[in-house]
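Proteins fold. Shown next:

***
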Amino acid sequence: MSESSWDAALTELIRATMPAHERMHPSGRLRFRASARARGSLPRHVADRSAVPWDSIVPAHAGQIEIEVGCGKGTFLAEAARQQPEVFFVGIEASPSYAAQSEHRLTDRGCTNAAVVADDGRLFFADTVPPGSVAKVHIYHPDPWPKRRHRKRRLFDRQFARLVATALAPGGKLLVATDNTRYFGEILATLGSAERLRRSRETELHYGDEVAGVAFGPTNFSQKYRAEERPRHRAVYARTERASIRETSMTQAENSAWTRVAALDGVPTDEGLPVECEGKELVLFRTDDGIACLEDSCPHRGAALSEGKVRDGEIICPWHGWRFVLDSGECSTLPGSMPAKTFTVRVESNEIFVKLG
């Protein structure tokens, strides 16, 4: 099967397995649309219960195409369109009112090489973007949804990573920025497990902190966080050919008992990194001896240990303060009580593997 045929087949499979959704974000923005339409405050392209056709968004003569997911009020989108008139930009925004503001900003600046679509970013990639058609995807400061019960709303997961990899042309780039250290670690873990995405350190060094209108900004959030001196995390992933799937000295094919869960450089130094392995929620920690893996659930009442604080080689449960030794899972608060469940970890070539059995 050719690369393009494989991409198309994968896209159809993902579409078939995705549950039915309203097109817009489940925050009430869909219900807002009727009143917004009456006021004339919607952008030209609004996905209702079906996708907006790609050829009605992108002109036939468009050359290089770049997509920004979550374009907000259009700060980056307008600057990018102004600086790169030879590129056609598509901004995706779940909020119709923000999408309208982005479109007005483009109009005010006379940018004809960009379009804005009010749609759900995940669904847009699943049923609108043709495979291999995009040169760059920009995702800057996505909502981290910090509460555990809201994690399912996060944009980055393995399914979305596959969708982006399918949309990118060979050699295409995914650029990500966030101020949230924990979420950044999860993003690295998710993208690091994608078969056809590989982190490009060279490109990250080339772009640095920000190249206005090209990479990482400007956005309203980046300007705000720079002023507040918050941490600013950046990553670039390149789309590789299917034949160049990540190679390590130990693969799942060679030893099916081990499962890759994260990249080593995605684990923070002073907090846990929540990961999922075969449906089980785990958390990774850095220790003096390397990496420790615990079940992301306190044996006392089931609190997420990933939300606790790390102190002196122990994780402190965020609910009742029970302390567990990272390397052994032993409870030091009440010796002899229930320990946290631990799992064997192996690190190979900057990749972290976990053995559940």
Q: What stands out?
A: The chain is about 25% helix and 25% strand.
